[in-house]
Amino acid sequence: MDVIGANPVAVELFTEQPCLQVESSEGSTDAKLKNVRILVVEDDLDTQELLKTVLQQHGAQVGTVESAAGALAELKRAKPDIILSDIAMAGENGYELIRKIRSLSPAAGGHIPAIALTAYAGAVDRRRALLAGFQTHLAKPVEPDDLLAVILSLTFQGE
Question: Positive or negative, the Cα torsion across 34, 65, 95, 7?
């Protein structure tokens, strides 16, 4: 039974304590992600907006799309440094998206690091995400600091 694309339950994006930290630090900015271009692929608009806000607070330049097709179109327009993608999306899911991205040439974006951010949090789900072509898998809810650490590890490996 394949439940990808189904949205049986709402899942919190961030754990409660980090959410309070994010809310209390809205006026502050932290430029750890300065000049890092991130493409967020997420069909839930509230989650998309929350991710965008959190990442921008750390200095990232964030583009958002709601589908795999939108992500592929955006890759033709501009190459991000990181792709952050949900797995369960209407239409093509995150696994199908990353397989298509990995089939592209490096010049077309085929080697851009990608993070699966999903409610599918078991060991089998992690393995499936890695085998599909994601560099890492983060389960929702995620702590903003963990998300930041993973992004930093993927963007500044050579520095």
Answer: positive
Backbone phi and psi for residue 28, each to the nearest 5 degrees, phi listed first: -90, 155
154: left (phi over 0), alpha (psi -120 to 50) or beta: alpha
Secondary element (H or E) of residue 97: helix 94-102
Q: Give the predicted TM-score (pTM) of the model.
A: 0.81
Closest CA to 66 of 38, 81, 47, 82: 47
Task: Spell out the domains of the chain, with CATH numbers in brackets.
Answer: 29-153 (3.40.50.2300)
d(CA 64, CA 78): 12
Q: Among candidates 111, 103, 108, 63, which has minimal Cα distance to 85?
A: 63
Instruction: Please give the helix or strand (H or E) that residue 23 lies within, else none.
Output: helix 16-24
Is residue 122 within 8 A of residue 89, CB to CB? The reply is no
Amino acid letter, 43: D
Q: What is the pLDDT of residues 45-56, one digit of tens each?
A: 999 999 999 999
d(CA 120, CA 108) in angstroms, rounded, equals 29
